[in-house]
Amino acid sequence: MLSELGITDLWTFVIGTILIVLLPGPNSLFVLATAGARGVADGYRAALGIFLGDTVLMLLSTLGVASLLRTEPMLFMVLKYAGGAYLCWLGFSMLMAAWQRIRRPLNSKDPMQKQPLSSRPTRKALLLSLSNPKAILFFVSFFIQFVDTDYAHPALSFLVLGVIVQIISLLYLSCLIFSGAHLARWFSQRQRLATGALSGVGALFVSFGVKLATATLT
Q1: Are 208 and 91 in contact (CB under 8 A)?
Q2: Which domain holds residue 106?
Q3: Which residues contact 180 (CB under 8 A, 6 or more apart)?
């Protein structure tokens, strides 16, 4: 049936998408940390920001923005440095929060409750999702392999593939959200481990930022 919509090798696409979604990255890590800090509801608010950001990136890919990034290297550089700076800022904020917690332990029963990820998770997740210009190039380079070049309405093919990606992403992020909430209860009695975990997450975000800032188009 999906072949009538210009989609080829559906199951290869599904398996590839699952493997890609399972790769650790700033989006999934942010949702996990937010759920651990603020609970299931805020975890889904963060996931909403990721869904919106990925939808925008997929839309930009279908509109040809990926080609613009390739033909205008300066635009790509500006976007990647801005994205890298944002990721590093999130990471350093978490590292500073961990350092302050070491100096002045929290009296709260939940030692991860006041981490900087907690405020406005949807907006932060949206900015996080949009901060990687290489994601646009990834979406178009991955999707194009499963769209029939002879199909008259390729935008419809991209739409269906995009919906499949979002469903898989929703299932995966839901697992992370409930896992994060469970970890929060476990960490609530282990403040030193919670502080160490927050430091580790912050360091990972800094590394993500540095990796993005040094990325190339190839």
Answers
A1: yes
A2: 2-213
A3: 31, 32, 33, 34, 35, 36, 43
Cα 162 from Cα 9, distance rounded (Å)? 15
Q: pLDDT by residue (tens digit) across 31-61? A: 988 888 788 899 999 999 999 999 998 888 7
Instruction: Give 72's contacts (C-beta < 8 A, 6+ positions apart).
Output: none
Is 159 inside a domain boundary? yes
Tell me the pTM.
0.75
- Could you tell me if residue 139 is inside a domain? yes
The DSSP call for residue 115 is: S
Residue 101 forms part of a structural domain: yes
> Could you tell me the CA-to-CA distances from 32 to 43, 172, 179, 181 in Å, in that order?
7, 11, 7, 8
Please tell me what DSSP assigns to residue 147: B
* 218 within domain boundaries: no
CA distance 131 to 67: 18
CA–CA separation, 17 and 183 (whole Å): 27
By the 8 A CB rule, do 133 and 92 touch?
Answer: no
Say how many domains are in the chain: 1
